[in-house]
Design brief:
heterodimer; A: mainly alpha; Arp2/3 complex 21 kDa subunit ARPC3; 2 strands; B: about 210 residues; mainly alpha; 2 domains
């Protein structure tokens, strides 16, 4: 059951996601792919709030994007972003936050940087791409392998984000734990 | 708070937010059933002329497509290689229509109307969705966005004094911890003013 605290935390993380959208994208020089901070927010939402609240905060964030706030990285927003080919990644964020939270909750008592990074990679990278890439494949009718190859360039940045997120998740667990087990 | 709304008086602006979203959903579903490019071109002309009706300047209308151009170009090239030029045009045109139509709804609907329509839509499902809690969460988030900006700025200034403004971890951690502490205080304040979230408030309005 959701109490007032849960609702406030969900709202705070949705706002935090918006804040991460204002962080300028860092471009990795050797690959030339922009790395945005928002997929980091997905991992943090799940890893700090847990599966259910983490996923709900992403739902809330996406609702605000859909109603027309330009909160996605680069000032994008509105309903149009969901009808594009990359809409699957946006919806995949919800599942990704849930998965990261679920694994972190499972390992809560012995959570360390390794298990937290594992959660972030499985939920925030593997699962996210498992939803996003087939979506691109179907929506743009291009072969699966082409879509997969096109996404590979983002993987190094995502792995760096997963390691960073896990360090934050473990540190927040030690200082201000919000998941009770 | 900056929104994407473009103020003007037009029939497109006047149409109720809920109806616009509903029409958009229907368009999205129908568009993927269409197989003749002639129909697609017709729909494209219709959507573009609606931009005219809504008095939206060309530059702004094109700006809606710009973020997707890169991806559309990749899809276009990939399609030429796998199938043919006509399929490539077809797929890209379908995306362009969907993005333009969805952006038109966003550009012509005020955010407050959109949220009101959303709450109205949700209240149809109030047996399953706690509408009051959703409303509270929505308004809290909108309020929190600038607050988090302020907290981040304060943390950055504090870390600059220590020469750590380039250390992302030293920026993230205090920001998150301060944000969470603030959240705990706000929740306690809300409970003290008896916003009892355990209550099922069936009116769809949140008590303040």
């Amino acid at each position: 059951m959701m109490n007032t605290k849960d609702i406030v935390y969900i709202a705070l993380f949705a706002a935090l996601m918006a804040g991460l959208g204002f962080v300028p994208a860092i471009t990795i020089p050797s690959i030339g792919v922009p790395v945005t901070a928002q997929s980091l927010g997905i991992m943090l939402a799940g890893g700090i709030l847990g599966a259910k609240r983490g996923a709900l905060s992403i739902v809330l964030f996406l609702v605000l994007v859909a109603v027309g706030l330009p909160l996605l990285a680069g000032g994008r927003g509105g309903l149009g972003v969901f009808s594009g080919a990359s809409g699957g990644f946006l919806l995949g964020w919800i599942a990704a936050a849930y998965a990261v939270g679920y694994i972190v909750e499972k390992y809560w008592n012995k959570l360390n940087i390794i298990s937290a990074a594992g959660a972030c990679i499985l939920g925030g990278v593997v699962l996210l791409y498992a939803i996003g890439i087939p979506w691109v494949t179907v929506a743009a009718s291009i072969p699966f392998m082409k879509a997969l190859m096109g996404s590979l360039a983002f993987i190094p940045g995502d792995l760096i984000k997963a390691v960073f997120a896990s360090a934050v998740i473990v540190a927040v667990k030690n200082q201000y734990p919000l998941i009770s087990k | 708070m900056i929104s994407l709304y473009y103020p003007a008086t037009s029939p497109v602006h006047k149409l109720a937010a809920g109806i616009k979203v509903l029409l958009l959903l229907i368009l999205g579903t129908v568009l993927f059933q269409v197989e003749q490019i002639e129909i697609l071109v017709g729909v494209a002309v219709l959507v573009v002329s609606l931009y005219g009706v809504a008095k939206i300047p060309f530059k702004l209308a094109f700006g809606q497509l710009r973020p997707a151009l890169y991806l559309l170009a990749i899809v276009f090239i990939a399609q030429i290689f796998i199938s043919d030029l006509e399929t490539a045009i077809f797929v890209v045109l379908r995306f362009a229509i969907l993005i333009l139509a969805a952006s038109l709804v966003t550009l012509t609907t005020m955010m407050s109307d959109m949220i009101a329509a959303l709450e109205k839509g949700l209240s149809l499902f109030q047996r399953w969705i706690p509408v009051a809690k959703v409303s509270l969460a929505l308004s809290l988030t909108i309020r929190f966005i600038p607050v988090i900006g302020v907290i981040t700025q304060e943390v950055r200034e504090a870390q600059r004094v220590r020469g750590m403004e380039r250390n992302l971890f030293a920026i993230f951690m205090p920001t998150i911890i301060r944000t969470l502490k603030m959240g705990t205080e706000i929740a306690e304040a809300l409970d003290a003013r008896s916003f009892d979230a355990e209550d099922e408030i069936s009116t769809g309005k949140s008590k303040k």
